[in-house]
Amino acid sequence: MSSSTPDSDKTTTSSKKSAFDALAASRLVTELRGNFASGKTRSYEWRLLQLNAIAKLVVDHEQEIVDALRNDLGKPPLETVAYEIAMLKNSCRIALKELKHWMTPEKVKTSIATFPSSAEIVSEPLGVVLVISAWNYPFLLSLDPVIGAIAAGNAVVLKPSEIAPATSSLLAKLLGDYLDNSCIKVVEGAVDETSALLQQKWDKIFYTGNGRVARIVMAAASKHLTPVVLELGGKSPVVVDSNINLKVATRRIIAGKWGSNNGQACISPDYIITTKDYAPKLVDALKTELEKFYGKNPLESKDLSRIVNSNHFNRLTKLLDDDKVSGKIVYGGEKDESKLKISPTVLLDVPRDSLIMNEEIFGPLLPILTVDKIEESFDVINSGSKPLAAYIFTNTKKLKEQFVMTISAGGLVVNDTTLHLAVHTLPFGGVGESGVGAYHGKFTFEAFSHKKAVLYRRFIGDAPVRYPPYTNTKMRLLKALIGGGILGIIRALFGW
């Protein structure tokens, strides 16, 4: 999770700093279970109050949020406002608008086998849930799941990422000031604190991060049969056909790659596939647009986030220094270790067995693979693990249809990148190694809810056919009832 370990941790319930160990975690969960059992989180009024409080804290402290993210990641204010603050406000708005509807039991049809009866599906809170968030969008990825957990009526513990310490500290302070601390807690810290939390029994764990830590989370959850949502990543491809508006496509690829935290985003384009014939045009377009956006010296640009820490800087440097790719750089490649800056870097004809093509890049490096025919790109994508996102730029209807039918990914976008994240009516999540479960909008509410089946009957209509002694007539009638056909029931009654 991180190589840095803070001297102490904070919870929103106490200003006193002390070691947060398994015993402290156990006490925390016990306290939350007691408060959840009181029923206070189940009420519509409590949920509404907390959601309004989150909406208010975002408005009241927008500049502090921008400053924290600038401190943690060098993130441009526009990216923070557009991709974290605005999206959080939208999540709150949707939850507040739809909450009563989400909470209302869903009436469903019953069968003739249970006649007379009625039935409904009741969404109930799971209980006490743990949210472990990521450092790359530390405000959004912390509070977006918390909004859904609260809307669903749960007690929540949030563990922000220690790799974004300014944001983590701000979250602890703001949630402590604005929310009901008897049911909503923040625990700061690193590996030790997270390990202490994972030793406890939760009713759901929601983790955003990488596959290595996800395996640790899932193993810990399995000891208690705790369900999980794992929001991971992978190598999200971009297929670029030749019959497109190249300028628009290039700008949209740049926005999704370098305009999204300098490539440090789970759905950033990880690599491009195009044809050998079209690659030179694509490279030229990327060079032209990148220079327009970030200037001739992008290391000095204020519109590019820095690399989060020296560990990630060194990891990315290692990818570039690989003998198989060091000669493939066609644009960029500049680095400034003192500022943790790496310029937008484009690589052409990168070997598929190189290091950069065998792990998620999560940074400003963009390899381009070439194929003879654009249709071959689908085989390249499907030869690897299922990505969190996949993108295609084409005007060919058949290719679009083939892409949607052939490519298995968490989400697909045709003729753009990353924008599906902003559509709250679409589920956001991975498949295979890119994740388990989905959220956003109503899907977040459902991720933290149990859909409870309820069947209502009265004392009339008590059919003797259910009870011994069993006869052939009863057998025929039960078969007909379970089959659900009126004609079959009539036949059974008359012995036909």
What is the strand arrangement across the widest sheet?
12-15-16-11-10-17-18
Described by its quaternary structure, the protein is: single chain
CATH topology of the largest domain: Aldehyde Dehydrogenase, Chain A, domain 1
The percent range for strand residues is 15-25%
CATH top level label of the largest domain: Alpha Beta
- Helix-and-strand structural type: alpha/beta
Explain what the structure shows.
It is built from 16 helices and 22 strands. With 496 residues, it is of the alpha/beta class. The protein has 3 domains: 9-232 and 440-450, Aldehyde Dehydrogenase, Chain A, domain 1 (3-Layer(aba) Sandwich); 237-422, Aldehyde Dehydrogenase, Chain A, domain 2 (3-Layer(aba) Sandwich); 465-496, no CATH class. Strands 12-15-16-11-10-17-18 form a 7-stranded mixed β-sheet, with helices on both faces. Strands 7-6-5-8-9-20 form a 6-stranded mixed β-sheet, sandwiched between helices. The protein has a 3-stranded antiparallel β-sheet with strand order 3-4-22. The longest helix is centred in the first third of the chain and has 27 residues, at 77-103. The radius of gyration is 27 Å and the shape is globular. Residues 1-16 have low confidence and may be disordered. Belongs to the aldehyde dehydrogenase family. Residues 35-454 form the Aldehyde dehydrogenase domain.
Short description:
One of its GO terms (molecular function) is aldehyde dehydrogenase (NAD+) activity. This protein has helices at about 20-35, 45-60, 60-75, 75-105, 140-150, 165-180, 190-200, 210-220, 245-255, 280-295, 310-320, 375-380, 395-405, 440-445, 470-485, 485-495; strands spanning about 10, 15-20, 105-110, 115-125, 130, 155-160, 185, 205-210, 230, 235-240, 270-275, 330, 335, 340, 345-350, 365-370, 390-395, 410-415, 430, 435, 440, 450-455.
